[in-house]
Amino acid sequence: MSRSEMPQVKRVTLENVSKAYGSFKAVKDVSLAIEPGEFVTLLGPSGSGKTSTLMMVAGFESPSSGAIKVDGVDVVRRAPKDRNFGIVFQGYALFPHLSARQNVEFPLRMRGVEKSRRRSMALEMLEKVGLAGLEERRPRELSGGQQQRVALARALVFQPDALLLDEPLGALDKSMRERMQYEIKSLQRKLGISVLFVTHDQEEAMTMSDRIAVMNHGQIVQIGTPRELYASPRTPFVASFFGETNLLSCVADTAGSGAVKVTLASGFSFPAASDVERAQLSRHPETFVSIRPEKISVLAADERAEIMVDAVVREVAFLGKFVRVCTVASGVEITSIIGNAPERISRLAEGAAIRLGWSREDAKVLGVDVEPGDMQVAGSGRETHDMSVQLREAV
Ligand code: ADP
Ligand code: MG
Q1: What pTM was computed for the model?
Q2: Atom 22 in ligand 1: which residue has the minimum CA distance?
Q3: N or C: which end of the chain has fewer CB within 10 A?
C-alpha cells in the first residue's frame, strides 16, 4: 500500500454514552477513547451491553444521551455509511450470490469508485487477508474462516477510519479462531488502524487487545491493559473474570496512612494493597481481597514471607508443570499453584500441615461491583438486534 492508500488513523471517543430501550437501560454512562491505531476490546458477559455500545458507534442505534466523536467531531447524527467505519459482525452475512471479489467491491461501488480501480483494490485486499486464488468463489464455496476473511476484507477495503468487530470469530472452531485472532491482530498492526472489538471471551480479549474495557450491567467497570486487569483488578467481577483467583471475604480497615488492613471472618488479619480509592473502601469496608494462586507459595520450614498462615492440605492436583494445592487456612479455602519441583511437592499429602505465604503487594483489596440497580432484569443474552437488514446499508 502506498502512503496515500493507508487508512487514516483516527481517534474515536465515547463520552457518557447511555442507551435505554424503553425503560430498560442497556448502556449506562460509557466513556472510552480508542486512540489512533489502538486495539480496544469491550469484554463482558452476554447481556452486558457490548453490542448496544458498538451499534451506537456504528450508527445503527442512537444513544439516549452522550456523544460519539471521531477526531473530536460528534458523529451521532450521521448515518452509518457517513461514519466511515468498517464493520464485521458474527451474523453479518456476505451476499450469497456475489463472489468474494464482488462482495469486497461492494462498498467501493457504493462509494462510486470506478470499475477497474474497484477490482484492483478488492483483489489487493483479498490477498492481504490470505484469499489469493479464491477471489471468484461464492461464500458457500468457502469455509467459515474464509468467509470471515472476506467480511474482513470488505470492511477494510474502503480505508475506514476505524474497524468495529462484534464477536467476529464466534462461529469458528477453536483452532480457526486462534488463527484468525492472530491474523486480525497482525493485519491491524500492519495497517495501523484503530479497532473496537467485542467479545465475551476473556482469553481472546487478552490475546488481541492493547486495552480492555470490562463491561457488566451496561457499565464499564474497569479499563486497562490485559496485564493491569490481571494484576490489579478493582472489583470481584473483574478479578474472577480474568483467570483464577482466591476471593476472600473480608473487612477492610483504611484507618492510618499505611497499607489497608484486611480481617477475615476468622479474625486473621494482614496488610494488603489496593487500587481502589480509600474513600470508597471506607464507605464499603465489607469487601473481598483477591490473591492469585500463583502468588501464594507453600513455604519450606526455613522460609519466610511477608504474610504467613498455617494451612491444612485438602487436595493436590498434579497439572504437569504446575501443581494446584487446595488448602484450608484460617477457616477459608485458599488455593495455591506452585511449580512441580519434587522437593516442594513431596510432602503435600492430603491432611498435611503446611504454611502458606504471600507478599502484601499480591493481595489486592477490591471495591464493590456495579449492581443491576435500576436496570430491569431482561433475558440476558437475548439477541435483539436485527442486524441483517440494517447492516447492508453500511457496506
Ligand atoms: P451483549 O452484546 O453484551 O450481549 P447487548 O448490548 O446485546 O449485550 O444487550 C444488552 C441488554 O439490552 C440485554 O439485556 C438485551 O436483552 C437488551 N437489549 C438489546 N437490544 C435491545 C432492544 N432492541 N430492545 C430491548 N432490549 C434490548
Ligand atoms: Mg452482543
Answers
A1: 0.87
A2: 384
A3: N
